[in-house]
Amino acid sequence: MSERVKVCIDRLLPRDVQRPQHTRTSNGRAEAIIVHRKMWVNGSRLRVRFLGGTAAEKQLVREQAAWWSAHANLEFVFDDDPAAEIRISFDTTDGAWSYVGTDASEIPLNQATMNLGFLDGGTAAHEFGHAIGLGHEHQNPAGGIVWNEAVVLRDLAGPPNSWSEEQIRHNVLRKYEADQIRGTTFDRGSIMLYFFPGSWVQGGVGTPANEILSVLDRSFIASAEAYPRATTAATPLFVNGDSVLGEITTTGEEDLYTLEVATAGRHVIETDGHTDVVVKLFGPGSNTALIAEDDDGGVGLNSRIVEELVPGDYFVQVRHYNRAAGTGQYRITARR
Fold first, then answer.
1. For the chain, what is the mean pLDDT?
2. For residues 244 and 256, what is the distance between their CA atoms, to the nearest angstrom?
3. b/e map of 280-319 (b: 16 or more CB within 10 Å)?
4. Number of neighbours of residue 224 by Cβ within 10 angstroms
5. Helix (H) or strand (E) segment spanning residue 165
6. Torsions phi, psi of 267, nearest 5?
7. H-helix or E-strand spanning residue 124
8. Is 170 part of any domain?
């Protein structure tokens, strides 16, 4: 092939490798679903640590990360804290990749959560899109991409990617069939869309090399489905107290609760109702230190988390999962 295509690797946790992605159909068309279960708490302060890199590379990363924080209600702090949520290596033999959103919380602190083996164009911005919870735009089922599989398999088997057939199908072909990232139509201008040559696509029309955030990227990341500037105060949730009535009024909305644990021991946090939500528990004393998450572990579409907790202050994030159950009221309780 004439073009040497550099493609981002979709880095997944082991438990997610065989987990099917969910789609829904609206007006006869499949629409993508944002990865709500991997979103940080809105308003989070995410620390970034560099594991190597030159001064010029680090400055470029800071600049492109700011493209997202200019619109999303998130703050990136480049302080090289040993406990940083995002840890970046620059291994030129390992391509470009990032864990998606809060998956980074499950990676040992001495290991990278992102690698920038090349920094062409908007690569750093693309990987920071993953780091805050976005997937690949080419995997948006609303896109209508029909791959020329034989050519894709041949080209990605060679340098600079040198992938196996299984890796190619997982990262480009298979995940396109049922994926995840958002409720918008396919965005050819998205920074989350990599360049693909026309030879890879039936019909011969490839995708552009996008090097900046698109209008849809900027509007979406600031929307209620992602990280809106407008926030409400967290609602107190009490151990062995009354259940709290919550309501999801907007697709993708987040509700946040605080939980004070006074006595160490087994605690149960669960929702009740017909609204499909994902629940995540952070702490103690941190809204970015993920402890546990659950989707549908309770009755029906409800979530249930059972964890041994030490005394301290915790945060409980409830996010709408954006499936057929839609919006509505739910109740949440915490007990010991």
1. 84
2. 12
3. bbbbbebbbbbbebbbeebeebbbbbeeebeeeebbbbbb
4. 15
5. helix 165-168
6. -125, 145
7. helix 123-131
8. yes
Summarize the confidence of residues 300-328 as an average pLDDT.
Answer: 86
User: What is the distance of C-alpha 86 from the center of its chain?
Assistant: 13
Q: Are 125 and 72 contacting, i.e. CB atoms less than 8 angstroms apart?
A: no
What angle (nearest 5°) sits at the alpha carbon of residue 195, between those of residues 190 and 197?
140
| Number of C-beta neighbours around residue 106 at 10 A | 12
- Which of the listed residues 221, 249, 270 is the one where a domain comes to its end? 221
* Domain shared by 200 and 140, yes or no: yes
Location of structure tokens 């990605």: 156
Chain segment 13-64, per-residue pLDDT in tens: 655 544 444 433 333 333 333 566 789 999 999 999 999 999 999 999 999 9
Question: Would residue 191 count as lying in a domain?
Answer: yes
Asked, as a colleague might, if the bond just before 284 is cis with ω within 30 of 0, I would say yes
246 and 215 together in one domain:
no
Same domain (yes/no): 53, 186: yes
Q: What is the pLDDT of residues 118-171, one digit of tens each?
A: 998 999 999 999 999 987 766 655 555 778 999 999 988 887 777 888 878 877
Q: Which of 269, 270, 274, 271 is nearest to 323 (CA)?
A: 274
Instruction: Round to whole Å and give the CA distance between 279 and 236.
Output: 15
**Helix axes 123-131 and 55-69, enclosed angle (nearest 10):** 50
What residues make up the domain containing 283?
235-335
The secondary structure of 258-286, three-state, reads EEEECCCEEEEEEEEECCCEEEEEECCCC
Which of 161, 189, 221 is at the close of a domain?
221
Domain count, the chain: 2
Same domain, 182 and 330: no
The rounded distance, in Å, linking the Cα atoms of 36 and 44 is 15
CATH number (domain holding residue 251): 2.60.120.380
pLDDT of residue 177: 41
Residue with token string 């572990």: 297
CB atoms within 10 A of CB 328: 15
Residue, of 242 and 165, whose pLDDT is higher: 242
Q: Is residue 158 part of a domain?
A: yes
**Whether residue 42 is found in the same domain as residue 155:** yes
